[in-house]
């Protein structure tokens, strides 16, 4: 499973972005994408948990994880 491609699909689906939206490691997320609000964070985390079969504890979540696409992918890869 390609983690980055799967995380990209989750973001596109949850945030209802165009399917041709590009993400690279430095793409800013939280604060840069208007659709990425606190409710979207919860939905993204739930989708990641369901898709990857992992559990994310509340104390693991910080704004740093959602700073960039790369930081989010790195977090997911560490959990998998």
TrEMBL record:
It comes from the Bacteria. Residues 1-80 form the Carrier domain. SUPFAM superfamilies: ACP-like (SSF47336). This is Acyl carrier protein. It comes from Aliiglaciecola litoralis.
